[in-house]
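Minutes, project huddle
Topic: does the predicted pose make sense with zinc ion bound?
PN asked that the exact inputs be recorded in the minutes so nobody has to dig through chat later. Recorded below.
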Amino acid sequence: MTPLWPCSQCGAPGARNIAAHGYCATHATDLYRSLPVEAWRDGGRGLSTGQHRPDHGPEFHDLRCALCGATWVGTLLESCQWCRDRIDAQRATQARLLLNPHLPSVDNPNRVGAIVEWGRRLAHATQTGVVTETDAHHAINRIEGNHDRAA
Ligand SMILES: [Zn+2]
Ligand SMILES: [Zn+2]
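Predicted holo structure (tokens), as shared on screen:
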């Protein structure tokens, strides 16, 4: 691991090296705080509130999540547990909806198109890890099974 350089802006002890510059906790926080919200799509990270917490260890600070505002004591840019939990819950809901699609009935001419569209979304969800391949196969078999029975 590269040793931490002193902050290139204020000379304080470095907390992070970013793109060949040293950053103290405050200046790293300024930099990350200037990022657009889309930067935290995978969950927020803890930015320093400016309070060093050497009582927890030399690397510890009072942190506030850049996205949801949760606060905790941790190391700079630690990923936020609250955001992770929320994203996991969202994914679980998304997966449940996707695995139990509301499709037009078998005598509806739109059904085939709807199944194709659903299959596309299911494939994407499998690639991004929202649903497992096994669950996707089961869901497809279920739809096909319904179809055969009705035919
Ligand atoms: Zn600094
Ligand atoms: Zn958060």
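Observations noted during the meeting:
- The radius of gyration is 23 Å.
- The helical segments are 25-33, 81-99, 111-127, 133-150.
No decisions taken; revisit at the next huddle.
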